[in-house]
Write a structure and sequence with these properties.
Layout: H1 2-14, H2 20-33
Helix pairs in contact: 1-2
Length: 34
């Protein structure tokens, strides 16, 4: 449930991206998890 989404959001903060498109995708997912 909600706790898993919080953990997923934290892991996304640690994710390294190669370019701005990947970063934009990560930001979209993080906003969806809020």
């Amino acid at each position: 449930g909600g706790v898993a989404l919080l953990y997923a959001s934290r892991e996304l903060d640690k994710l390294q991206t190669s370019n701005s498109d990947q970063l934009a995708g990560v930001e979209i997912i993080k906003n969806a998890l809020k």
